[in-house]
Amino acid sequence: MTTIELNTIQSGDVSAVAEQEGGKPRTRGKDNGPTTLPHLEHLVHITRKVQRPMLLRVLLESAHGQALPAAQALTDAAKGSLPIPSRNVLFALVAEMEMEVQARLERAAERVALLADEYGAMAVTELMDAGNPDDAAVLAAPSDKYSRALYLYLEQEFSPSGATEDRFDHAERRQQMLRHFQSEKYSSHYLGPKGAQPSLGDAAVESLKQRLAELFPQVKPEDILVEPFAHRESEPPRLSWRPFGLSQATNVVACLASCR
User: Fold this and answer.
1) Would you report the helix, strand and coil content of the chain in percent, each value rounded to 5?
2) Would you call 145 helix, strand, or coil by DSSP?
3) In terms of Cα–Cα distance, which of 179, 175, 183, 180 is closest to 148?
């Protein structure tokens, strides 16, 4: 079926694919991505997710180095994510590309997919300018995290205007910062229950020494020393305060006068 669809698209007749959609509500099904491109997991993933398919065509053409009319016929007029027949045609096109090109596509797709999580979406949004018409068009779909990330990647790596802004790289670094600052899962400390009073008995000490010895076999168990410390909240020292009245001022003046 994929070969027939590909030949139909290349001949300029897109009705075969359109008829399969038939204006009917789409039913959930499986595309041929895992079987056609079993080694391009991330590319298959973003092809399913991107809501602006034209960006997928730009990615394929940029990595391939030449125009792909078959892909353009499917993507540029599409609204929302590509239907299964159209995705299968794109997968067949990629399968015919050289392995080096496929590897470039997979590396790019992996970076885009990694930047499409919660923190990556925040970073991408921060770097986009609503006053820029191109940025504004992508921002018009706030839930399409994959299109935003792919747009930023294409602008950096394959910008037709030769722009030198590394916004995608910046977004990746910003994503890491947001993840560490806002996610407890990536916190560098352990936050235990409030009011808990940990105790360290002989059995716990021996168990801890045994685990440390397993982690650090070059250290002798008898050389391991466990010293418990208790963290106690303390308030900064408070300085006593008294009003500075007229009598104290008089004494200061008198002292200064006597020192002359």
Assistant:
1) 60, 0, 40
2) helix
3) 175
So what's the pLDDT on residue 185? 59
Hunting for tokens 């009245």 — which residue is that?
245
Q: For residues 96 and 105, is the Cβ–Cβ distance under 8 A?
A: no
Phi-psi map region of 241: left, alpha, beta (phi>0 left; psi -120 to 50 alpha): beta
Helices 53-64 and 99-114, axial angle in degrees (round to 10):
140
* Residue 167: both structure tokens together: 């916004």
Return the half-sphere exposure (C-beta side, CA atoms, 13 A cut-off) of residue 175: 20
Task: Dig out the tokens for 196 from the structure.
Answer: 């808990």
For residue 218 the two structure tokens come to 């070059």
Hey, what amino acid is at 25? P
3-state secondary structure of 150: helix
- Average pLDDT of the chain is 79
pLDDT given for residue 14 in this prediction: 43
Phi/psi class of residue 243: alpha, beta or left (left: φ > 0; alpha: ψ in -120 to 50)? beta
Output 157-160 pairs: Cβ under 8 A, ≥24 positions apart.
157/62, 157/108, 158/58, 158/59, 158/62
Backbone dihedral angles phi then psi of residue 244, each to the nearest 5 degrees: -90, 100
* Mean per-residue pLDDT, 238-249: 49
Instruction: Give residue 170's pLDDT.
Output: 94
- From residue 49, give the alpha-carbon distance in Å to each of 53, 147, 229: 9, 8, 51
**Largest Cα–Cα separation, the chain:** 109
Return d(Cα 170, Cα 174) in angstroms, integer.
Answer: 6
What pLDDT, on a 0 to 100 scale, did the predictor assign at position 77? 85
Instruction: Quote the CA–CA distance of 255 and 260 in Å, as a whole number.
Output: 9
